[in-house]
Design brief:
Length: 342
C-alpha cells in the first residue's frame, strides 16, 4: 500500500526535492568503474578514511539560496572522514552484530502523527520517490510506502541482494548516529562536511570551473534532463549508484556531492551564525527551526543527491544545505562518519 504525499506534517515528513527514472546511459560511468572493494569498518583503524587537515575556509554562499548565507570564514580542526558513504554491506554488519532495528522498521508512534493520519502511516515504512503518473500534479512526487526500509529500498518487494556496495538509505538520523557510535566515530558537522566537499577548491562547485558538467564530463551522480518528467542519465546512472563510481576529490573522498544527501550532526536553522566560527557546531536543539518542520526537529543534510537537477535544485554544491526531519529516512539520504583525532 502506498499513499501519495502532497504536503508534509511538521513531525513526520519533510518537503523534499528530487527524483529518479531509467533510460540508457552515455557518459561512460558504470558499476565496472566503481570501488571494487569495501573496507570493513573497524574502530581500531581508519583504513576506510582519509585525513582532512585543519583549515580556514569560507563557509556558506551568498549567491544561491538564502539559507546558505551569510558566507563567513570558519576554522576547522583536522579530522578523518570516510572515503565513501556507508554501504548496505557495512550497515548489515552493524545490524548483525547489534540487533539494531531502524526507525523505518519500527511501528510509528501515533503521537508523532496528526489524529487524522491514514492508517498506513502508522505501519512501519519509509518515503520513496514515485514518479508522477499521467495527469497527476507534478508536485506529487513522494509516497509513504509501508514495508519500505533499508533492506527493501524500493518498496516491500525489493531487496539489497547484490547491492552490498550501494549506499544504505531509508536511515533516520538516530539510525546513522547509532551506526557511528558502534563504529567508534561520529557524524560530521556541517562545517566538516563542507570543508571536505570543497575538495581544496574555492569555487562554487567542488571541481574546477563553474559548470556542473563541463565538456560533458560528470563529476557526480545527479539528474540530467528536465525534472521531474525527463531523465537523461548522461552520467551513467539513472538512479542510485554504487559508492565510488566517480573519481575521488583532491582529498581522496568519493561522492560528497551527489548520489545521496548525507546526515550531519547539526541542528538546522535557516541561516548561518557568523559568530560560530571556530569548529562550528551550529545552533542548539532549542534554537533549531525550519519553516517546513517547526522547532527542534530538523537536522542539516548536505551534498545533494542523484535527484538534483539544474532546472529545479542547485544543491550539488559544497555550500548547499537542506533541513530534514531527523526522525525520517528517505530513498535519497545516506551518511558517512568522521573520527576527530589524529
Amino acid at each position: 500500500m502506498n499513499i501519495k504525499i502532497v504536503s508534509f506534517t511538521s513531525c513526520a515528513l519533510l518537503f523534499l526535492t528530487q527524483a529518479a527514472a531509467a533510460q540508457p546511459a552515455d557518459d561512460g560511468h558504470s558499476t565496472h568503474s566503481c570501488l571494487a572493494e569495501i573496507t570493513e569498518v573497524d574502530s581500531t583503524d581508519n583504513r576506510a578514511q582519509v585525513w582532512i587537515k585543519s583549515a580556514e575556509f569560507i563557509m556558506g554562499d551568498n549567491s544561491a539560496y538564502p539559507e546558505e548565507g551569510p558566507a563567513h570564514k570558519v576554522s576547522v580542526a583536522g579530522f578523518w572522514i570516510d572515503t565513501h558513504e556507508v554501504t548496505n554491506g557495512q550497515f548489515a554488519r552493524f545490524v548483525e552484530e547489534t540487533g539494531y532495528v531502524t526507525v523505518a522498521e519500527r511501528n510509528p508512534d501515533p503521537a508523532n502523527w496528526p489524529d487524522d493520519a491514514p492508517a498506513e502511516f502508522l505501519k512501519p515504512g519509509s518515503v520513496l520517490f514515485t514518479p508522477p503518473a499521467l495527469g497527476e500534479p507534478v508536485i506529487n512526487w513522494w509516497s509513504w510506502i509501508a514495508g519500505t526500509n533499508w533492506r527493501h529500498p524500493d518498496g516491500p518487494d525489493s531487496s539489497i541482494a547484490l547491492k552490498d556496495n550501494y549506499p544504505v538509505i531509508h536511515v533516520a538520523f538516530e539510525d546513522a548516529q547509532a551506526y557511528a557510535k558502534w563504529a567508534g566515530r561520529l557524524l560530521p558537522t556541517e562545517a566538516q562536511f563542507e570543508l571536505a566537499a570543497h575538495s581544496k577548491h574555492d569555487g562554487r562547485f567542488a571541481w574546477n570551473g563553474n559548470e556542473l558538467a563541463s565538456n560533458g564530463h560528470h563529476h557526480a551522480n545527479t539528474w540530467q534532463g528536465t525534472f521531474p518528467a525527463e531523465n537523461k542519465p548522461q552520467d551513467g546512472h539513472a538512479g542510485l549508484a554504487p559508492v565510488g563510481c566517480f573519481e575521488a576529490n583532491d582529498y581522496g573522498v568519493h561522492d560528497l556531492i551527489g548520489n545521496v544527501w548525507e546526515w550531519t550532526s547539526n541542528w538546522y536553522y535557516p541561516e548561518h551564525n557568523p559568530a560560530d566560527s571556530d569548529n562550528p557546531t551550529g545552533p542548539s536543539q532549542q534554537e533549531s527551526y525550519s519553516s517546513n518542520h517547526g522547532e527542534a526537529i530538523a537536522r542539516v543534510i548536505k551534498g545533494g543527491s542523484y535527484l538534483c537537477a539544474e532546472n529545479f535544485c542547485l544543491r550539488f554544491r559544497p555550500a548547499a544545505r537542506e533541513a530534514q526531519d531527523s526522525g525520517l529516512g528517505t530513498s535519497h539520504i545516506g551518511f558517512r562518519t568522521v573520527l576527530n583525532k589524529s
